[in-house]
């Protein structure tokens, strides 16, 4: 299991409550701690912890750092539900994810 300290950033102009973060495919099991969490124009950043486990090594091994490997689900202040691609992170986090997948999938 890999633990990642992540941040949610509101890029819109209305408050949104994030209710889920999941993998875009079956390669990873993603568990987000501290959800739901609300971000707003006056509180644009919120911390969230992610716990990742590899489910499918073949698919996970094809992952590239430029991929957006997560989907994020949220409800805006008008009660509309949205789902988008997510997973923008720095090089060090991308390298950690790649090493994690390699270590898990190369283990007997």
The gist of it:
This protein is an alpha+beta fold. 19% of the residues lie in helices and 44% in strands. It has helices at 57-60, 91-106, and strands spanning 2-9, 16-23, 28-33, 37-39, 45-54, 70-76, 81-86.
Fold and architecture overview:
19% of the residues lie in helices and 44% in strands. By secondary structure, the protein is of the alpha+beta class.
Name some characteristics of this structure:
19% helix, 108 residues, 2 helices, 7 strands, elongated, single chain, 4-stranded antiparallel beta sheet, Immunoglobulin-like
Query: Rg to the nearest angstrom?
Result: 15 Å
Helix content: 10-25%
CATH topology: Immunoglobulin-like
Task: Tell me the major beta sheet.
Answer: 4 strands, antiparallel
The tally of structural domains comes to 1
For the biggest β-sheet, the strand order reads 4-2-6-7
Q: Mean pLDDT across all residues, rounded? A: 89
- The top-level CATH class is Mainly Beta
Shape: elongated
Q: Give the N-terminus to C-terminus distance in angstroms.
A: 16 Å
Number of strands: 7
CATH architecture: Sandwich
Count of alpha/pi helices: 2
N-to-C order of helices and strands = EEEEEHEEH
Strand fraction? 35-45%
* pLDDT < 50 runs, ≥5 residues: none
Secondary-structure class: alpha+beta
């Amino acid at each position: 299991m890999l633990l990642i300290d992540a941040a949610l950033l509101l890029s819109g102009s209305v408050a949104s409550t994030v209710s889920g973060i999941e993998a875009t495919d079956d390669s990873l099991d993603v568990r987000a701690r501290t959800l739901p969490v609300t971000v707003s124009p006056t509180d644009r950043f919120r911390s969230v912890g992610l716990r990742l486990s590899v489910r499918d090594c073949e698919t996970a091994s094809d992952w590239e750092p430029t991929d957006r490997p997560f989907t994020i689900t949220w409800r805006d202040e008008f009660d509309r539900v949205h789902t988008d691609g997510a997973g923008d992170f720095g090089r060090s986090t991308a390298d950690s994810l790649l090493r994690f997948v390699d270590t898990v999938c190369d283990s007997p």
